[in-house]
């Protein structure tokens, strides 16, 4: 859950450090006091876009940091490990800084990250439902995604999309082959001829290095032989060979060491040098034995190098790349030959279609019971939201195959008894749409693993008994999650486990937002204000206390 939110120089907030508790919390206050500003700041901390206008007038930058508990289950921890971000069992700190020019920086647990990484982490931690979130539910893609989330079928939906793309690619290749068979035949003929040239050469990348090394030895054989003979003379076969000279020096030093024992170390070095020189002599003899003048072999190597070089130049690649070119042409020729075989292409297309059908059937099987369950739950919720007799249905209609499956998903509503079910986009009443959208948001929020759910004035357009029911819904949701709600309805606020009052205050000629955590008596006053407006009477206070269960 969200534990702490620190805000510096954001819109009309100068400095705030807020400690959050579990359960359902209500944020209340006069219109324009800055209730939604707090949620906007939190939105920036979890990756929302921003510009320089969010910086408080006269300041250089806005700075927001949000501290969360590390969610159970290990999914976020696993993601952070993959991203090489530091893990802390105590929690996760997301920080965002926006300067007056609109440039921003982000950190997770003190490590700089991209905005995409910040947003990805934020998705694990908090979910914000804006006051117009129900309008998004009018879109077909949003309805489909919501159902798939409710059905825990996101992976199945992704598999269907992959199978669809593969099927369409093979289908397109078949169509292309049918339309351009003549060009394909010419390309096959050319590739076949080129491949024969490469295959006749029978060249591999390892051979190129060996050829060049052998050519270097053969081309310089005379000089190498002469140098080897000189080395042999110097090491041990000439009158002034190293070993003979060292032998004479060693004999003389032995005589001297009998007189002066300090020469012992020098004698040891001489002995070691003689051993090394003797080993060098043996290695040099073996090397000399392998050297030979072989003009015929030199010519063979040079012809081979010329053949390889000519073919590489012809196809504008380096000699080392010829084997790779051959492999690429083999692959392309295989594709063309497959394209030239209608039966083979049709078989591949049929296999891809069969794979798509299997994946789509699995997705349909997951969507069908989830659609029925969601329909029943939202219909039940509508009965308590001043829409008695109303019906909600998640309709699945078979359609032509697509990347989204074998059926369309549409949310349909009959707001009153006897009305025909219609798509949500055709619901005339904005109030009805708001209430249905709220019911959907509350019900489907249970499907999310996100530990913190935030509702920003989603109760606009409702009141009275319906508002109280909405408050009870949020209260029930707060038993399993941390729920924050910006509200102007006393019935909703009275259901909260805790309540903050957001107000504006003048400080040295500047209007700033303040936040006060309300105790029992203060909650009564705030609920009374929300009930009675400017004039608060004792009757209003008693009503407020009754709503809070204090009398």
Word description of this protein:
- This protein is α/β, with parallel strands linked by helices and 551 residues long.
- It has helices at residues 35-45, 75-82, 115-125, 133-136, 140-150, 154-179, 181-201, 205-219, 221-237, 242-259, 264-290, 295-314, 322-339, 342-383, 430-445, 464-477, 490-493, 520-532, 538-547, and strands at residues 2-10, 13-19, 24-28, 61-68, 92-99, 104-108, 111-113, 126-129, 391-402, 405-414, 422-423, 452-456, 482-486, 498-507, 510-517.
- A six-stranded antiparallel beta sheet has the order 2-1-4-5-6-7, covered by helices on one side. Strands 8-12-13-3-14-15 form a six-stranded mixed beta sheet. Strands 9-10-11 form a three-stranded antiparallel beta sheet.
- Helix 16 links the parallel strand 12 (452-456) and strand 13 (482-486).
- It is elongated.
- The two termini are 32 Å apart.
Concise synopsis of the structure shown:
This protein has 551 residues and is α/β, with parallel strands linked by helices. It has helices spanning 35-45, 75-82, 115-125, 133-136, 140-150, 154-179, 181-201, 205-219, 221-237, 242-259, 264-290, 295-314, 322-339, 342-383, 430-445, 464-477, 490-493, 520-532, 538-547, and strands spanning 2-10, 13-19, 24-28, 61-68, 92-99, 104-108, 111-113, 126-129, 391-402, 405-414, 422-423, 452-456, 482-486, 498-507, 510-517.
Task: Please outline the helices and strands.
Blueprint: E1 2-10, E2 13-19, E3 24-28, H1 35-45, E4 61-68, H2 75-82, E5 92-99, E6 104-108, E7 111-113, H3 115-125, E8 126-129, H4 133-136, H5 140-150, H6 154-179, H7 181-201, H8 205-219, H9 221-237, H10 242-259, H11 264-290, H12 295-314, H13 322-339, H14 342-383, E9 391-402, E10 405-414, E11 422-423, H15 430-445, E12 452-456, H16 464-477, E13 482-486, H17 490-493, E14 498-507, E15 510-517, H18 520-532, H19 538-547
Parallel strand pairs: 3-13, 3-14, 8-12, 12-13
Antiparallel strand pairs: 1-2, 1-4, 4-5, 5-6, 6-7, 9-10, 10-11, 14-15
Helix pairs in contact: 6-14, 7-13, 8-12, 9-11, 10-11, 14-15, 15-16, 18-19
